[in-house]
């Protein structure tokens, strides 16, 4: 048993080492990607549940590694957060998304994901102000999506940062709501324009799971009371779309309506190459 224990420990240490080594290499690679064209944004449509019209698009970071192929954001974002690269990359995401969104119809919004680490200082507000000024995008067409994790530090600087952003006229969105059983209290910490209901509840509610149904109904009632918009995330089937529509969710997003695609693939009249 002692042998096995030691062996297990050595194995564990090696894994830790390899993971650290791996992350260091990935960090070098992501720096290069930022300088080249390895980082791109994909855009996924957000649909008005009542009319079926596209009302906005969420920008999602994509990294095509020269050797490893596509690396999902869930894998590389924690690394760029640890290394501080998130500031540089996050700034680029905002500028790029704003520059793209001005090419869309006047009413279409663009949503950008923002990490807790990006909210630690005044830097983000400066970036947003600069991006809006350069692109002339109307501030209310930019949505910044944060998860409840930004509140975990209970940091006054984070709240000040969110308020500074909101004062610029951009819309704050609370992402992944319900996941980890978010406290309703987070909704009063900042003035959110919208709540995104996590995919797990969308799936459960459509399947008729009583707990999920009750939670979704409660979230929607709360949102109505607060005058906050709602988007159901990860809608994959017509059945799920119908269920969320019937429950009164305002907007829908998911593979059922469209997968994230590169800007050049957007089937927007203004983006389509002109044909003579
Ligand atoms: P998220 O903000 O919750 O984004 C939604 C994720 O769900 C995206 O994954 C999207 O591709 C995926 N998705 C959309 N519809 C469906 C569906 O119908 N079914 C399923 N199974 N999945 C669906 P993605 O692009 O892999 O991004 C994962 C996470 O990485 C995002 O979750 C967000 O937290 C983070 N992320 C992505 N881009 C950025 C970024 O620019 N900055 C920061 N800080 N985080 C980002
Ligand atoms: Ca999001
Ligand atoms: Ca989400
Ligand atoms: Ca998420």
Separation, N- and C-terminal Cα atoms: 77 Å
Mean pLDDT: 89
Rg for CA atoms:
20 Å
As a percent range, the share of strand residues is 15-25%
The major β-sheet equals: 8 strands, mixed, barrel
**Shape annotation:** globular
Q: Could you say which structural class the secondary elements and strand pairing correspond to?
A: alpha/beta
Order of strands across the main sheet? 1-2-4-5-6-7-8-9
List of distinct ligands in this structure: ligand C2E, calcium ion
Count of alpha and pi helical runs: 8
Helix proportion:
40-55%
Show unreliable segments.
Answer: 1-7, 269-276
How many β strands by DSSP?
Answer: 10
Q: What string, H for helix and E for strand, traces the elements in order?
A: HEEEHHEHEHEEHHEHEE
Question: Would you write up a description of this structure?
Answer:
With 276 residues, the protein is α/β, with parallel strands linked by helices. Helices cover 44% and strands 20% of the residues. Strands 1-2-4-5-6-7-8-9 form an 8-stranded mixed beta barrel, surrounded by 6 helices. Helix 2 packs across helix 3 and helix 6 crosses helix 7. The longest helix has 34 residues. It is globular, with a radius of gyration of 20 Å. The protein starts with a helix and ends in a 14-residue tail after the last strand. The N terminus and C terminus are likely disordered. One calcium ion binds next to strand 6. Keywords: Membrane, Transmembrane, Transmembrane helix. This is EAL domain-containing protein. It comes from Sphingomonas xanthus.
């Amino acid at each position: 048993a002692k042998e096995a224990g030691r062996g297990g420990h050595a194995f564990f240490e090696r894994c830790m080492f390899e993971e650290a080594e791996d992350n260091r290499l990935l960090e070098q690679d992501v720096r290069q990607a930022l300088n080249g064209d390895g980082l791109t944004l994909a855009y996924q449509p957000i649909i008005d549940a009542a009319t079926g019209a596209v009302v906005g698009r969420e920008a999602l970071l994509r990294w095509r590694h020269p050797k490893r192929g596509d690396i999902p954001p869930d894998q590389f974002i924690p690394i760029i957060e640890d290394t501080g690269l998130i500031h540089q990359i996050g700034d680029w995401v905002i500028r790029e998304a704003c520059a793209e969104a001005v090419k869309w119809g006047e009413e279409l919004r663009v949503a950008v994901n923002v990490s807790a680490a990006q909210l630690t200082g005044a830097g983000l507000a400066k970036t947003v102000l600069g991006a809006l000024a350069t692109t002339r995008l109307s501030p209310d067409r930019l949505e910044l999506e944060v998860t409840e994790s930004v509140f975990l530090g209970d940091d006054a600087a984070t709240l000040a940062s969110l308020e500074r952003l909101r004062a610029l006229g951009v819309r704050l969105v609370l992402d992944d709501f319900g996941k980890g059983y978010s406290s309703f209290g987070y909704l009063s910490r900042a003035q959110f324009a919208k709540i995104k209901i996590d995919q797990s509840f969308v799936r459960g509610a459509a399947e008729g799971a009583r707990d999920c149904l009750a939670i979704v109904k409660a979230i929607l009632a709360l949102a109505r009371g607060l005058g906050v918009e709602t988007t159901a995330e990860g809608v994959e089937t017509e059945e799920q779309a119908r269920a969320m529509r019937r429950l009164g969710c305002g907007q829908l997003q998911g593979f059922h309506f469209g997968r994230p695609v590169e800007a050049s693939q957007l089937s927007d009249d203004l983006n389509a190459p002109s044909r003579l």
